[in-house]
Amino acid sequence: MEDSGFPFDIPPRPPAPRHRGVSGWFSLILVVALIAAAGTLLYQTVFQKSGISGVVIDSYTLTPIAGATVVAGELSVATDKNGAFRLDHDVASYTVTKQGYDLAKVSVTPGADTFHISIRPNTVHGTITSSADGSPLADTTVNAIVGSSTVSTTKANERGEFELSNVPEGASLVVQADDFAGETTAIDRRTTLDLQLRPDVLTGKVKDAQGNPIAGALVAAGDVYTHTDADGRYRLKDAAQSGTAYFKAPGFVEVDQPVTPELRLDATLSPINVKALYATALTASDPKLLDPLIDTIDKTELNAMVVDLKDSSGHVFYKSQVPLANDIKATDPLLDPTALVTQLHQHQIYAIARIVIFEDPILAEARPDWAIHDSTSGGLWRTWNGLAWVNAHRSEVWDYNIALAKEAASFGFDEIQLDYIRFPTDGDLSTAEYGVPHNDETRPQAIASFLQQMYAAIAPTRAYLAADVFGLTVWETGDGQIGQNLETMVKYLDYICPMIYPSHFADGSMGFDNPNDHPYEVILWSLQNGEERIPEQTPKLRPWLQDFSLGEGIAYGPNEVKRQVDATHDAGLTGWMLWNAANVYQTTELAPN
Predict the structure, then answer these.
(1) How far apart are CA 273 and CA 421, in angstroms?
(2) Which residue from 159, 164, 158 is spatially nearest to 185, judged by alpha carbons?
(3) Would you state the pLDDT for residue 24?
(4) Residue 442 burial class via C-beta count within 10 angstroms: exposed 0-12, middle 13-18, buried 19 and up
(5) Whose CA is closest to 261, among 177, 183, 196?
(6) How far is CA 291 from CA 88, 336, 408, 583, in A?
(7) pLDDT digits over 403-423, tens only?
């Protein structure tokens, strides 16, 4: 420094002071904020990680699920033994998967750092065993059903164990095994179901008093029935473990036994040769008329009585509980059927309920849509006597008569006998209109279909089912233009009863100028012809015999009745029935009791 001449240095003058402006303060604040943000970011980067944590639980048991996979974007992680997980990734939704559970997609609330995920189990497992002995039921079919659709299916292994996957919410479990009753149960919130199935096959053997097997015997329990094989053995599927089993065969007395949980029943049937008289409802309702008939049966080889419950007038002769019978005012309660059956059984009389089917003017007039119509007038078709007939093609007519037959069986009758199982024979048949094709094919089919449904309804009762047919039916190989065909009808009946009245055959039949004069031959040859046509079903043949006089020729008395009975026996049959509309019988030549 240049010497100033002063003994010491003088410091330089400081710069003049200045005031700060607004922009300066803003810059300072911004710098501070940036430094703070950078610090926070640095802290999170160094000391913390971004992402989310949670726990996966079972939605039914609310317990943690280990090994579930949680996926976020391209990252995934498995839950630990406590069901916990953490994903260092922030996304709006997560997917959770686990074998045996429904896939779950979960949306995350912004800012949340922990949450719970519940997933629904969709696998059901368990065991299937027999309720009889606890044994496992291998190969049992197990289905998950929603509505009417099967959504998952499997089979039980040899230990009866099953596992059913992908079972949706609201499904039901349907289990089926051969020889066992199936079971359907709602799964609800269960994942383990151990079920026991009830055996439902009734087995056994049916034999006669000598120990010989009875082939073709009917065995019924509940609403199901079957028939025995050639060895008299049977297997009845879908049988209940309680109730009553019925054993029936043509020519034998019905036997019933209580069903036991073991589902094993043998039956021994005793023979019966039904030999009957016919009684109108009026006769059966009046002790002065009924008692002499019972006395006649008690004293002779007769052992059965046929009683009208519904005749060709359409009247139902008791207080029926069938609604339609009351709606159309068909009931005319002359009889107490239960009391009548009790009375007959007290005398060891086989009780037969006769029900007329298709000649039913009351039903035809009340339900014209179910009747035969006249193609010329458009009204109801009528016989020469002015009677309307119901249409045998109509299932509504079938249903009405089936209901009456089941009701008759409930009264304790041993047999239900159907009459007028045919289409009409008198009147102007050319104007009869049925609303459906009516020909050689459809007529017998209509009658057979009706009988098939009737047989199914009566089979699970103690009653036998019989039907009356024209005597010509054992000769006519077609349907006689009335729907009656022997081979077709006999399949659905326990007894088929041809009305072989000699007076009803036309002159020249069987080579006789007047068949009425040849009661023995008419009966014998007719039955022999029928037996040739249904050789395996001959025990079902039980003829009506003529005990009245009609037309030209001989008068029918005790001898003519006896000749017809002898013809029946000579044909190899032992059962028969006597018809007299006035209920007056010529029985002095019958064998005593």
Answers:
(1) 24
(2) 164
(3) 47
(4) middle
(5) 196
(6) 103, 16, 22, 12
(7) 999 999 999 999 999 999 999
On whether the CB atoms of residues 98 and 120 are closer than 8 A, the answer is no
Using DSSP bridges, classify how beta strands 464-470 and 495-499 pair: parallel, antiparallel or unpaired.
parallel
- For residues 179 and 132, give the distance between their C-alpha atoms in angstroms, rounded to a whole number: 12
Tell me the residue ranges of DSSP E strands in 123-201.
124-130, 141-146, 149-155, 161-164, 172-176, 183-186, 195-197
Q: For residue 556, is it left (φ>0), alpha (ψ between -120 and 50) or beta?
A: beta
Write out the two tokens for 511.
Answer: 């080579």
539 or 15, greater pLDDT: 539
Only one residue has tokens 């008395």, namely 557
Output the pTM of the full model. 0.79
Which amino acid makes up residue 319? Answer: K
3-state secondary structure at position 347: coil
The DSSP line for 101-128 is B--EEEE--TT--EEEEEE-B--EEEEE
Q: 3-state DSSP call for residue 480?
A: coil
| Both tokens assigned to 209 | 């008093």
Cα torsion through 33, 38, 44, 50, rounded to 10: 90
Q: What are phi and psi of 510, to 5 degrees?
A: 60, 20
